Amino acid sequence: MWEQTLRFFSLQDANVRYVVFGSILLAGATGVLGCFAFLRKRSLLGDAIAHATLPGVCLAYLSTGSKEPYVLLLGAIATGWLGTLCVDWIRRFSPVKEDAAIGIVLSVFFGAGILLLTTIQSMGQASQAGLDKFLFGQTASLMKRDILILGGLAFFLCVVCFLAFKEFKLLCFDVEFARSIGLPVRLLETVLTTLVVAAIAIGLQMVGVVLMAALLITPAAAARQWTDNLTRMVWLSGLIGAFSGVAGSFISSLAPRMPTGPWMVVTLSILFGLSLILSPQRGYLTRLFRHTQTRTTIAAENILSTMYRYAEPNGRFLRPVSVRDILRYRSLTSVGALTVLRSLKRQGLVSETRGGWLLTELGIKSAENLLRRHRLWELYLTEQLNIPPHRVHRSADEVEHWITQDQEDQLVSLLDSPLRDPHEREIPQRKDE
Question: pTM for the full model?
Answer without folding.
Answer: 0.77
